[in-house]
Amino acid sequence: MQGTDPLVQIQNLDVSYYTKGVQAKALHNIGMEILPGERLGLVGESGCGKSTLLKTIMGVLPPNGKVNRGSIEMDGRNLIEMDEKLRRQTRWAEISMITQSALNALNPVQRIDRQIIEAIRTHQAMSKEQAAERVSELFGMVGVDPARARDYPHQFSGGMRQRAVIAMALALSPQLIIADEPTTALDVIVQDQIFSRLRQLQQDRGFAMILVTHDIALVVENCQKICVMYAGMIIEAGNTRDIIQKPRHPYTIGLINAVSVLGSVTAPIAIPGSPPNLFENLEGCRFAPRCPFASALCHQKIPEPTTLENGQKVLCHHWSKADEFSKLAKSPETWMQSTTATT
Amino acid sequence: MSMFWFRRLWQSALTLFTMLTLMFFLFRMLPGDPTATVISPALYPKAQEILRMQFGLDKPLWEQYFVYVKNLSVFDFGLSFHTGRPVADEIGSRLLNTVLLVFPSLITAYALGSIVGAVVGWSRGSKTETILVFLSTALQSAPVFWLSMLSILYFSIQLDLFPIGHIVSPGKFPDETWRMYFSADFLHHLALPFLVNTLYQFCFPFLLMRSSILATVGEDYVELARMKGLSERSVLYRHAMRNSLLPLATTLPMTLGWAVAGSVVIETVFSWPGLGLLMVEAVGRSDYPVVQAAFLLIAVLTVLGTLIADFLYTLLDPRIVNE
Ligand SMILES: Nc1ncnc2c1ncn2[C@@H]1O[C@H](COP(=O)(O)OP(=O)(O)OP(=O)(O)O)[C@@H](O)[C@H]1O
Ligand SMILES: [Mg+2]
């Protein structure tokens, strides 16, 4: 894949929410790229800004959310500065989305086929009959009986609703599909079925995909690349295999530790503490207050992103000591230490 | 017809029956002799007796009640104590006048209220929103009679734009034929009470629509509609507004009876010869047959409105299944 032009390239993106004049810096200096046909996993704790990033890509930030800096490039156009009318044409046709909660994403008082037909006919000159035919085809693709297309959302089970939302996302064959925690509300078996279907569709049709989740195991199973977010920043990114084997950021090390099947520890260790309040003026590394390896420097200065030979990017002053950290991190005592510990 | 609707109809009938029974006895428990206006005490006792018999007032109360119910079942509402004419005739023409005043203004108010409420709620925090919300909250709590009198003072007396009251100019249509409703004179008389009533009725749907739109703005399906690439206007009309219309569409039929009953005030101020004014007059004269029939009519409208609301709900919201 090396050498291909990225499908979407995000650079230096800053996004803030303003509530009663108070600024919450939800995204800070985000940079990432997605190659055509690539599956990228975006992981991070609840509230770290995953949905904010996706909404910025889709251009549907709420009125109090503002992009203060940066660009999102696709096919040589900067989506941020695009005229609203042109921007609208790119939505769904070029980037579509499988939303966090399929139950609420479907309009409860409209038939499902009508909602998909609406998406199709907004972008393509197609008769209602043709569009309805397309819906049947899409339902077949995601594994729902096309005869059910005229049902209302409440007549579908959770898994079927999620499949219907996936069908809607595929409707215009976009180059990029963003899936925001697509299976959180579903049981494990249905979750597996949906992911295998999604993977198969992705391989058949070759769209790129961003999978957003707080479940790192899902990313390992489904994505070639991974971006780890913490408090509005991407603190580590690269090939999934590289990062699982050699995480360079203490937060990633902690995340992997927290999943017993991935880390070589016997019992999972949760990272103590909670993410910083985004309303505060944040100085230094945002993870420093929770980091057992933080130094004085970490509390003062935001680290610059470093790119390693294998393309792995890391945002840590002390990334070179990661092997040592990894060893220490396996013992629960390390995480219990006072947060002022220095290296 | 499903079990649900059968049960609902049966309940409605029971409600109406209870209502008319209560009304019958309540009115007769009130002090004052209703016969005084028809049967002059100056008549010979024998003549009084004969008149009482004609109206059936010499029979015991329970027998009067059975006769009343029996007559109602064939839509015979009896004779007015005051005029001696059949109640149905008495009420019929008055009801038409009320309907001509109330229904168009109710529909205008709901149509305008929902559109303005939706647009204003959608662009939350605008100056227009603040002003309109303030005005309609104030207007809603202002007494209608005061509003009506102010409007007469200003538009009719000061500016001399509209007549001061009544349905047509006096003497213009001496025999009150249907022709009068198609005259410009009628519209001229209708205009001011219509405007006042519309303005007053506008507040509720406006405030309701605005708040239900506000609740929809953050819904996931609204965001999805936007992500699908729909224009802001389509998102508003096809998704946000369509769904926020639910509470409104169902309160409209329920307010029908209420609006007719509420026309009492506006009809009194504008001397509008409608059902409301008739009720005020009839209560003053203890003309029970007329009062009972008018109240029954309002009860029927209310019960019917509730049934329509139920029906609209099942029609508009597929999630509601009545079994
Ligand atoms: N409309 C808003 N106004 C103000 N703050 C907001 C708004 N939306 C989100 N935030 C804040 O921005 C931060 C990022 O939120 P976001 O929804 O992007 O998190 P997330 O990573 O998607 O979380 P989750 O895993 O729970 O979905 C949070 O601190 C949240 O409180
Ligand atoms: Mg989220």
TrEMBL record, chain A:
Q: Where does the record place it?
A: Cell inner membrane
Q: Which NCBIfam families match?
A: oligo_HPY
Q: Which UniProt keywords apply?
A: ATP-binding, Cell inner membrane, Cell membrane, Membrane, Nucleotide-binding, Translocase, Transport
* Highest classification ranks of the organism: Bacteria, Pseudomonadati, Pseudomonadota, Alphaproteobacteria, Rhodobacterales
Please state which protein family the record places this protein in.
Answer: Belongs to the ABC transporter superfamily.
Boundaries of every ABC transporter domain copy? 10-256
Taxonomy, superkingdom: Bacteria
Q: Which PANTHER family match?
A: ATPASE AAA-TYPE CORE DOMAIN-CONTAINING PROTEIN, OLIGOPEPTIDE TRANSPORT ATP-BINDING PROTEIN APPD
Q: Which Pfam families does the protein's record reference?
A: ABC_tran, oligo_HPY
Q: Which GO terms describe its cellular component?
A: plasma membrane
Per the UniProt entry, what are the Gene Ontology biological process annotations, in alphabetical order?
A: peptide transport; transmembrane transport
Q: How does it sit in the membrane?
A: Peripheral membrane protein
What is the protein name stated in its UniProt record?
Answer: ATP-binding cassette domain-containing protein
Keyword presence, Nuclease: no
A molecular function GO annotation: ATP hydrolysis activity
- InterPro entries reported in the protein's UniProt record: AAA+_ATPase (IPR003593), ABC_Ni/Peptide_Import (IPR050388), ABC_transporter-like_ATP-bd (IPR003439), ABC_transporter-like_CS (IPR017871), Oligopep_ABC_C (IPR013563), P-loop_NTPase (IPR027417)
| Main location class | membrane
- Per the UniProt record, the source organism is Parasedimentitalea huanghaiensis
Automatic annotation (TrEMBL), chain B:
Which InterPro entries does its entry note? Answer: BPD_transp_1_N, MetI-like, MetI-like_sf
Q: Where in the cell is it found?
A: Cell membrane
Q: Which UniProt keywords apply?
A: Cell membrane, Membrane, Transmembrane, Transmembrane helix, Transport
ABC transmembrane type-1 domain residues are 95-309
Q: Which GO terms describe its cellular component?
A: plasma membrane
Q: Which GO terms describe its biological process?
A: transmembrane transport
Family recorded in the similarity comment = Belongs to the binding-protein-dependent transport system permease family.
- Name of this protein: ABC transporter permease subunit
